[in-house]
Amino acid sequence: MNKKLAAALSGGVALVLTLSGCSDDSDDKVNAWAKKVCDQIQPQLAKNEAANAAIKQRTDENSKPAEVKKTDSEAFQQISESYTALAKAFDSAGPPPVEDGETKQKDAVRELNASSKAYAELKVKVDALQTKDQGQFADDLKVLAEEMTRVSNSGDQALKKLQSGDVAVAMSKQKGCQKTKASTGPASPLGSEAPDAGAEATPSASASEEKKA
Predict the structure, then answer these.
(1) What is the rounded CA–CA span in Å between residue 37 and residue 177?
(2) Distance between CA atoms of residues 112 and 45, nearest Å
(3) Of 11, 21, 148, 187, whose Cβ has the fewest other Cβ atoms within 10 Å?
């Protein structure tokens, strides 16, 4: 097991904040739409960076299973709430003024809400883990990590379609949708950086590394 849980948490929403263009090709209407979305996205970045930082700190401290469980549970809750907030941001902004904008927007909102639900379900599962048997806890974390990876790697196609062409250009010019300087630890689910492609995703792996004394 390694210490890169956040690699598994960098799912479809990473697409929202990995834009870095600076072209002025998009028109005023698209720019206005992008600003409306990106202004609402920025606070979610801070929330998710905090969740990742907590997970990394707990892992680096080689914490006890109960502590790992509590931290992971709180992180999943934060991530779920952020996905919900992102869905609301895209929903309240309305369709972007581009071809098939309404369809793309609705698909993205549905996708974000589905991701929120998935992380809420992961929280329920981590809350149900037993921590008395450290070896069993480690095994259960492995199973949970596999589910987490599937959740984080699925359902980003709608966001990709929404963030293309003029919309991508317009969003890249908005401060709230640009890359941020990584604090410490891996990327947040809101995508300040792309995850390490070679990283193995595991829930707060320090507890797993201690599988059996």
Answers:
(1) 9
(2) 15
(3) 21
